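Sequence design from tokenized structure. All designs in this work follow the same two-part layout: the structure record, then the generated sequence. An example of the structure record is given first.
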């Protein structure tokens, strides 16, 4: 499952429903999350559903701001969240962080502390 730009509008509640609708199958997930939105609660919820999530260190350019007003709103939100937009959103583009979530049992164990092989 791939989501891009929807976390912040789509919450962990919806993702829980999507996962549970798969029955015993657990899809791998890639979430491109705009940097103004926290992913903590989604990550905790996915962990409770049997997922291990890793954050990819690089950021990904998503799109230009639709207007100066949109940019100002996003920069305000980022400032309130303690996220530094210098060199990224301050330059006129929205950027996303990539989070990869996959089931713990992909390595044959349900131990969330075991590194994948």
């Amino acid at each position: 499952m791939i989501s891009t730009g929807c976390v912040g509008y789509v919450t962990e509640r919806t993702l829980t429903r999507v996962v549970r609708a798969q029955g015993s199958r657990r899809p791998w997930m890639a979430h491109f999350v705009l940097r103004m939105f926290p992913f903590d609660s989604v990550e905790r919820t996915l962990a409770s559903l049997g997922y291990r999530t890793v954050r990819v260190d690089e950021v990904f350019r998503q799109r230009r701001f639709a207007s100066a007003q949109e940019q100002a709103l996003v920069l305000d939100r980022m400032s309130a969240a303690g996220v530094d937009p210098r060199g990224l959103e301050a330059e006129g583009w929205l950027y996303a962080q990539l989070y990869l979530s996959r089931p713990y049992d992909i390595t044959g164990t349900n131990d969330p502390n075991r590194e994948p092989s």
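DSSP finds three helices and four strands in the chain. We note this feature because it recurs in several other targets discussed in the main text.
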